[in-house]
Write a structure and sequence with these properties.
Helix content of chain C: 25-40%
Number of helices of chain C: 38
Largest sheet of chain A: 5 strands, mixed
Number of strands of chain A: 5
Radius of gyration of chain C: 28 Å
Oligomer: heterotrimer
Structural class of chain A: alpha+beta
Order of helices and strands of chain A: HEEHEHHHEHE
Shape of chain A: elongated
Shape of chain C: globular
Chain lengths: ~200, ~500, ~1000
């Protein structure tokens, strides 16, 4: 039954026209539903693939476990940003108003903590927010405008209503034949190989 | 009124453009045993995506063109009067010696307040796992950005020498002098600056997946290119989703105290001074509540027509609107309480000038402004005690507009009446705005609505990716995979096969 | 001041100038400068050349560097004459005249440009103070609206003429005879001499004099009483009881400066070891400055005051001439207040004084002085001086006989010497336009091409007093000299020089004429005395005031009786304006924008009516009302003024000028226009008939007209309306917290210090102990501070003009003032308090930057544009200010001023000459405020440093303190425990305004003491 299934499954190959001896760089498998994807992902993970990924139109819950993704270190980046912001903010005010160019205002001390709190606070927020946004881009390697995925028309629905598993050609377990079979068995409605 | 609308409806309502009118369904009934759905209608990922993307992809409707051109022409007022103001000086405003701050600061505080709803909805409701936010947060955040842009304009042009306004930033200038960090105006620079940056990041980050959707649906190469750039090569990779979600959560966690701090800092402009009627410890919470209040009202004013135009009634449902009305009523009452509290404290303090400041507010030369404020902000929302009113489109639209007016007058009352009659009675005077004041007030609205029209036209109006998540949650999801991942045997295959 | 002049290198200047001009070194210098012109400079003696020489010599001697004579600026410094230090202000003595009375002044000149006029402290009859009008006169010098050349009608057109033509015309007229001169009365001896010559030389010449505001009734009264006109010279420093019958000795009086300082001495004496406070009664129809400072005010119609005077005389029981005594006895019995007044007068024999105002008929003056002499005032509070031309008839009669003479075609040439009858004289059967048209040749001399100038065929531009030689007698008769500070900007001629053109083939120079007429007073060495006179500015011992009163005589009972027969009904009285006087200063921006001391109205005059009258008529401030008297009608805005007598309407003269040729009507009030006087206010002279001039008041019918009119006031923008709520708040003392700001303590003649101190503290708000959350900054060097004594402030507002002139403060115009954007750094707040809205108490409170140590303005400035310096001054850094106006909002005193527009945009060349170069001109969009005259502080520091000495108390004197007639403002260094300001701030009357905010103001106030008649003491 699996073999029949495999026969029915068309493995379609997309190649760059002007490339001398094109090599497969990416295999895409399309799934109808998130549930199928979850199952498939778990299998792919257990097969010991490393350079592979799931593509979903929205964050599918449970997929972290299914793919075995380790927690990100983003929070530490944010913490660092916050610390930098706060200390930077306080030091800036102290240096500017009390050291570099002190002026006597309303008979008050040149520098005092209460008056410095608001700016210090805002700087904290600003830098930690920058940390989390830029950190996200950094960790995700964004922006990266070209990816092999975009060669597949089918893949366009990955941001709308379809679910994909992609396996990178550089994965040591990458093999068009067997991988396609595996994904087919897992219920992929279509499998594509992208060559460059 | 009614028949006029009927006549207009073919123009205003964009059915004929293929954007089918979706039915109004009352999903506001609440009973513990059956949760009414957040989204009425039978949308799935595909249809939702179509619905939202079509707003951007279809040809702009006549209604949109009318709205856009009207806003744009009003925006023209700014183009005329701001240069005029800068050329002749702030004397072209109505400000005078006791009343050094007029419309400019009133508008500044007003717009900053408006700017609080978006981030609040996105951040705080997100932290509280309020799923219903997903339908409205995108528009609300956009509104926040535009409101803050309007607000940011005013401190710049209200100073006597606008070309030196940059001296408020901590950059070394020719006099090697730094800003005075004791001044609440400098705190404003940091608070508003931070708020704008963070809101912008928050908004943009939330849009990345939807921009990717638009990119992937785009037919025209220019759109493809533009959205491609904006989407930064997003593939919906789950490894990305993983970091993305964490980043979003952290941003929300940061934006929440930020929202509360920004209007607190703005309120320091007044609270830190010693003008009777300004110098009040209740200001920070009072201002924050007021900001949420006015912000939600503005969201209402924008969304009620928008959901009609863009046929999103089953995405932005009555339930959403009702929830917002509830918040409007609550914050409205907090604001009302603050008004009362001010009077109590003034009386309780026994300070003559304080007492006079408030008697004068309510019965003095500016009593008219005060009572407009009270009736709009405190009385009008009370109508939401009745569910029928709470769920009536027209009522909520009108109330939202009243609240906007009321909140503008609140700032007017605070800024102007306190200054016009303060300590030294010989200096008392009356503030009357001039043409420039009014023109710039209107112009700011022009700017705001122009930007919003462009947003509706070119950006994903609703957070599609989040909606998909909501849909997924609504449809019972299997709990199988985690088990399977736990036990990695092949018994899963049949399930997969079936 | 004296010290300064003494040590000024420019002293050489006092030497006679033409003598200097003849000195060989000057010749050589001049020939170096003007090789071609030098010779004829000396051979010609025409006045113009004299002036050139004079200008040159002054320039070389340390006077005017090229203000108006550019060549001067290229003087090589290698040959800089001794005594010329560029950039160092030099002070010269001169005199200013108004109402036939000369005031000695000191003029500060900066590189030849006069920039300030102050009082002459060395003058025997003055204390160095100056009125607002005296100080503003320097702006009049640079008034771009002045007429700049002779002009005359040629073929129906007005064309410019040369002075040679003018001189030709004058000489011809002089020979032809039948010349009538209508001159402004003056105490100048030189002018009197010229008058005599005119009458002697010119065949059938006539000399008339006219001044719209004059003291003829005083001359009349003293003539009735003493047989010859006499000038009563009051010494208020001994008048423990002062009764003013419609008199305003502290403001609208030629001797107001002397009066003010003398009056003040009896208010400060309340702080002495044996405290003593004077009591001032004021019986008047309209609230005058004196009335606002009085202890007891009795509102009464001007018409009724004769009766009150009679009652007072009866109550005091002084000896009177028989016929008068009978009339007085016939007067109805006096009421309680009058009896109290009489009792106080009697209980202070010799230390009391009764003064009658110039609106009162002669008989009242006579009666007043009869009372004074009866109470032994003569020689104590009252001395008697000679008046100029005692024989001359009252002005109004003069005017009438001139008119008749014109009608009978006995006038060939009519010469107006500084008079402007077309504007300010009552019509005599026909208007002065018509009368002038009847005369074949009419010539007008004046510094503006005014209404009369346009009616005349010739206009000759006169000189400003800072441009001419002259002299005059001060109120006590002291001869006071006038010397030019600058060559005439427009080559004008002074009156005496002009008459010399008329009389002499070889016109004499003003300098020669003045010197000639004063020689009789000179000692053996004429030059020496002339030099010292010029230096001092007056001739010592030339006063002609005597202690003993002339013999009293009767014969004026009938006059008194008729004066007492006042018709019932409403009356209108005409006041000399506190700023514009009779209108001669209408083109002076400083005075136009100076708020009236009483109404605080700028750029307008209005009809003052009592609140009760206003409610009765349903009129509020700004509503137009119609006044009709003597067949004339005028619509004017009403101003509801407490303290007014309900049956009196008062209007100020001097407005509604038309200086430019443009069509009449309301023209722009923007100060940038040259003729700023045009169309400002209402020409109330229209209502002033001959009868009104004679009687001092006129019956009037008042009715509500339709429409309202915007009045630009600097205070009380919400007018006082008892009927509506906000008006109530406005007037409500409790709400306005007046008692806390301007504290008033009621005492008797001998206030008890401890009691006063207690009450002063009691008047303040109750607040917890004031302490800061932080350790406050301690000031190690000078600690400048100011004390303002409310007990001495009369509200005369001289300080405001002093500040404006010292600090180059911009004039913004009526519209901006109406918007509340006036720029005055110091303002005088006028508060009414008390329950009786028709007769409340009045307090004046000068308010300027208090230089708080914990200045609230500073912490809110985002760019640190206002910070403290080490001497505790609250500095304003103009070029750092970006104009957020936050500091102004946070200033509890609201004394900061913002440049909403570019207020000093492109001033004309002449206007620029008037600026004080020591003070920056502020740009648009910048905040400004009082600096305690920091430029004066620094220059005195530098001076002290150069003289290798420590600064001493009195080195620094801000403009306001320097000019205050009552010395209400003391300034100095708190670090010096001996300084006057340290003492005053420790006074038992001292308190700090709004101290409860813990802003630690450096300025203190001293509470006002009021000594009302309680009826307890005898």
């Amino acid at each position: 039954m699996n073999t029949e299934m495999l026969d029915t499954l068309a493995v379609e190959t997309i190649t760059v026209e002007d490339s001398v001896d094109p090599k497969p760089v990416l295999m895409l498998a399309e799934f109808e539903t998130a549930d199928l994807l979850l199952v498939a992902a778990a299998q792919v993970r257990d097969q010991g693939f490393r350079l592979w990924d799931c593509h979903t139109p929205y964050p599918v819950h449970g997929l972290d476990d299914a793919m075995g993704i380790r927690p990100t270190l983003l929070p530490w980046i944010v913490l660092a940003g916050g610390a930098l912001g706060f200390s930077g903010g306080m030091l800036m005010q102290g240096w500017m108003n009390a050291v570099d160019y002190p002026f006597l205002v309303s008979g008050k001390p040149f520098w005092s903590i209460p008056a410095s709190i608001p700016v210090g606070f805002e700087m904290t927020i600003l830098f930690s927010a920058l940390g989390s946004f830029l950190g996200m881009l950094l960790l995700n390697g964004l922006p990266r405008l070209y990816r092999p995925h975009f060669r597949s028309d089918r893949f366009r629905r990955a941001t709308a209503d379809r679910f994909f598993i992609s396996i990178d050609g550089r994965d040591r377990r990458f093999d068009v034949e067997s991988n396609a079979r595996l994904l087919g068995e897992l219920g992929a409605t279509a499998v594509e190989v992208i060559e460059e | 009124m009614k028949e006029v609308l009927d006549k207009l409806s073919p123009i205003l309502r964009p059915e004929f453009t293929g954007n089918a009118e979706s039915p109004e369904i009352d999903n506001t009934a609440y009973s513990p045993d059956n949760r009414t759905p957040l989204l009425t209608g039978s949308d799935d990922n595909t249809t939702i995506t179509d619905k939202v993307c079509r707003i951007v992809e279809q040809k702009p409707t006549i209604g949109w063109w009318m709205f856009f051109l009207l806003s744009f022409s009003v925006l023209g007022l700014l183009g005329v009067f701001v240069p005029f103001l800068i050329f002749w000086g702030v004397g072209t405003w109505g400000v005078n010696n006791p009343v050094g701050w007029g419309y400019a600061i009133v508008n500044f505080v007003f717009w900053i307040g408006i700017g609080h709803a978006g981030t609040l909805i996105s951040a705080i409701l997100f932290l509280f796992r309020q799923k219903w936010r997903t339908s409205i947060n995108r528009a609300a955040e956009a509104m926040t950005i535009f409101a803050v842009i309007c607000a940011g304009m005013f401190p710049g042009i209200h100073v006597g020498r606008a070309w030196f306004a940059y001296w408020m930033f901590p950059i070394p200038n020719q006099m090697e002098l730094w800003p005075n960090f004791r001044s609440p105006l400098v705190w404003d620079v940091f608070a508003v600056g931070t708020y704008f940056t963070v809101s912008l990041m928050f908004w943009y980050m939330g849009m990345i997946p939807d921009l990717a959707t638009l990119r992937d649906r785009a037919k025209h190469s220019v759109r493809k290119f533009a959205y491609g750039i904006l989407a930064m090569g997003w593939t919906g990779s789950h490894r990305h989703w993983h970091v993305y979600e964490r980043a979003y959560l952290l941003l929300a966690a940061l934006a929440t105290p930020l929202v509360l701090s920004v209007h607190s800092v703005v309120s320091f402009d007044f609270a830190v001074s010693q003008v009777a009627g300004w110098h009040s410890t209740i200001f920070p919470p009072y201002f924050v509540a007021g900001a949420i209040f006015s912000g939600f009202a503005m969201v209402m004013t924008l969304l009620v027509p928008a959901r009609q135009f863009f046929g999103l009634k089953d995405v932005i449902t009555l339930k959403h609107l009702e929830n917002m009305n509830k918040i409007i009523m609550l914050t409205g009452m907090i604001v009302g309480y603050s008004y009362a509290q001010e009077f109590f404290i003034a009386w309780y303090s026994g300070v003559k000038v304080e007492k006079f400041a408030f008697i004068n507010r309510a019965f003095g030369q500016y009593a008219w402004a005060y009572w407009i404020m009270v009736s709009c902000n405190v009385l009008s929302p009370q109508i939401f005690w009745f569910k029928k009113m709470r769920t009536s489109i027209w009522v909520m639209f009108i109330v939202s507009i009243l609240v906007n007016i009321g909140m503008w007058f609140e700032r007017f009352v605070i800024v102007v009446t306190s200054l016009a009659n303060d300590y030294t009675t010989s200096a008392w005077d009356y503030y009357t705005p001039k043409l420039t004041d009014v023109a710039i007030l209107l112009g700011a609205f022009g700017l705001f609505f122009t930007l919003f029209a462009l947003f509706c036209r070119f950006m994903p109006f609703v957070a599609m990716s989040e909606l998909r998540g909501v849909l997924a949650a609504a449809t019972p999801a299997t709990s199988a995979p985690s088990e399977q991942s736990a036990s990695a045997d092949t018994s899963a295959k049949p399930t997969a096969g079936s | 001041m004296k010290k300064e002049i003494g040590t000024k290198p420019g002293k050489a200047l006092w030497r006679s100038l033409d003598e200097y001009a003849d000195s060989p070194e000057f010749r050589t210098l001049l020939e170096k400068e003007f090789p071609n012109h030098a010779p004829e400079l000396f051979h010609s003696t025409s006045r113009r050349h004299f002036l050139k020489v004079m200008g040159a010599s002054m320039a070389l001697a340390g006077g005017l560097a090229g203000c108006h004579w550019p060549q001067q600026q290229i003087l090589p410094h290698t040959s800089r004459p001794q005594g010329r230090a560029p950039g160092v202000p030099v002070t010269y003595a001169s005199c200013w005249e108004q109402q036939e009375v000369a005031e000695g002044v000191l003029v500060t000149s900066y590189d030849g440009r006069p920039i300030r006029v102050d009082g002459n402290g060395d003058h025997p009859f003055q204390n160095g103070a100056a009125t607002s009008q005296i100080q503003a006169s320097v702006l009049g010098l640079y008034d771009p609206g002045r007429s700049s050349e002779p002009s005359h009608d040629k073929a129906g057109h007005r064309v410019a003429a040369s002075w040679d033509e003018a001189a030709e015309m004058l000489r011809a007229a002089g020979r032809a005879g039948k010349v009538a001169v209508l001159a402004a009365p003056s105490s100048s001896l030189a002018l009197a001499a010229m008058r005599k010559r005119v009458l002697r030389q010119v065949p059938s010449a006539q000399w008339y004099e006219w001044a719209p505001i004059h003291r003829d009734s005083e001359r009349l009264g003293t003539e009735q009483l003493f047989g010859r006109p006499t000038r009563p010279v009051a010494d208020l420093s001994r008048a423990r009881v002062l009764v003013c019958l419609d008199a305003d000795p502290l403001m609208n009086h030629p001797a107001s400066l002397a009066h003010s300082s003398a009056w003040a001495s009896l208010r400060t004496s309340a702080d002495d070891d044996e405290p003593l406070l004077s009591r001032v009664y004021s019986v008047e129809s309209t609230l005058s400055v004196t009335g606002s400072a009085a202890d007891v005010r009795i509102p009464a119609r001007t018409a009724d005051i004769a009766r009150i005077a009679a009652q007072l005389a009866a109550a005091t029981g002084v000896p009177l001439p028989a016929d008068v005594a009978s009339i007085v006895a016939a007067a109805e019995p006096a009421d309680q207040q009058i009896l109290q007044m009489a009792a106080d007068l009697k209980s202070h024999p010799g230390n009391c004084l009764v003064m009658a105002g110039d609106r009162q008929p002669g008989a009242v003056h006579a009666l007043a002085h009869a009372i004074n002499i009866g109470l032994g005032a003569a020689g104590k509070t009252l001395r008697f001086a000679e008046v100029e031309r005692g024989e001359r008839p009252p002005h109004i009669d003069d005017l009438e006989s001139l008119a008749n003479r014109i009608r009978s075609d006995e006038v060939e040439t009519l010469l107006f010497l500084g008079t402007n009858p077309v504007y300010d004289a009552p019509a005599i059967n026909e208007s002065w336009d018509d009368l002038i048209a009847k005369v074949p040749l009419t010539i007008h001399v004046g510094d503006h091409e005014d209404e009369t100038a346009r009616a005349c065929q010739w206009h000759l531009n006169g000189t400003h007093f800072l441009e001419e030689w002259g002299e005059g007698r001060s109120w006590d008769g002291t001869i006071t000299l006038r010397q030019p500070l600058i060559a005439p900007l427009y080559d004008g001629r002074s009156c005496i020089e002009l008459l010399s053109l008329l009389l002499d083939d070889k016109p004499k120079s003003g300098h020669d004429m003045v010197r000639a007429v004063l020689e009789p007073w000179a000692g053996a060495d004429v030059d020496a005395s002339w030099r010292s006179w010029l230096h001092d500015g007056f001739i010592p011992g030339s006063s002609n005031a005597v202690d003993s009163a002339p013999e009293m005589r009767g014969g004026w009972g009938a006059a008194l009786e008729s004066a007492m027969q006042a018709p019932e009904g409403d009356e209108i009285v005409f006041l000399g304006d506190h700023s514009l006087f009779d209108g001669r200063y209408a083109n002076n921006g400083w005075l136009q924008e100076l708020p009236d001391p009483i109404t605080k109205v700028t750029w307008d005059n209005c009809a003052l009516i009592a609140p009760s009258r206003a409610t009765e008529m349903g009129v509020k401030t700004g509503d137009l009302i119609q006044l009709s008297t003597g067949g004339r009608e005028l619509e004017m805005p009403a101003f509801v003024l407490p303290c007014m007598n309900p049956r009196t309407v008062a209007v100020a003269l001097g407005y509604g000028r038309l200086l430019s040729d443009r069509a009449a009507g309301r023209l722009s009030r923007k100060p940038s226009l040259y003729q700023i006087a045009d169309g400002v206010g209402f020409d109330t002279y229209q209502l002033r008939t001959m009868e009104a001039v004679r009687a001092g008041y006129a019956p009037v019918s008042v009715s509500r007209a339709s429409g309202t009119y915007e009045l630009a006031t600097t205070q009380d923008h919400n007018p006082i309306r008892p009927d509506d709520f906000m008006g109530d708040l406005e007037f409500n003392e409790e709400q306005r917290r007046i008692g806390e700001f301007a504290r008033v303590v009621e005492t008797g003649f001998a206030p008890d210090a401890g009691d006063v101190a207690a009450q002063v503290q009691e008047a303040g708000p109750h607040h917890p102990a004031l302490e800061s959350l932080w350790t406050e900054h301690e000031y190690k060097s000078h600690r400048w501070a100011m004390t303002i004594d409310l007990n001495l402030c009369t509200g005369c507002s001289a300080c405001m003009v002093a500040c404006q002139s010292e600090n180059n403060i911009a004039v913004v115009g009526k519209d901006e003032v109406a918007y509340g954007r006036e720029m005055h750094w110091i303002r005088v707040d006028r508060y009414f308090s008390g329950d009786d809205i028709d007769n409340p108490e009045v307090v004046h409170q000068p308010l300027t930057c208090n230089q708080c140590e914990n200045a609230p303005c500073e912490q809110v400035c985002p760019v640190a544009a206002t910070v403290h310096n080490e001497e505790g001054l609250n500095d304003m850094v103009y070029n750092r200010c970006i104009g957020t106006r936050y500091c102004s909002n946070n200033c509890p005193y609201k004394v900061r001023r913002f440049n909403y527009f570019n207020n000093t945009k492109s001033p004309s060349a002449t206007e620029q000459m008037g600026y004080n170069p020591a003070v920056t001109i502020r740009a648009r969009g910048v905040m400004e405020k009082c600096t305690y005259c920091v430029q004066r502080i620094n220059s005195s520091k530098i001076r002290a440093h150069n003289e290798r000495r420590e600064m001493v108390d009195g080195d620094v004197l801000p403009a306001c303190a320097q000019t205050c007639p009552t010395r209400a403002i003391t300034f100095g260094d708190l670090a010096d425990p001996q300084s006057q300001v340290s003492a005053t701030q420790k006074s038992h009357r001292a308190y700090k305004m709004l101290a409860e905010l813990n802003v630690k103001p450096r300025t203190s106030y001293m509470a006002k003491l009021r000594n009302p008649a309680t009826g307890e003491e005898g």
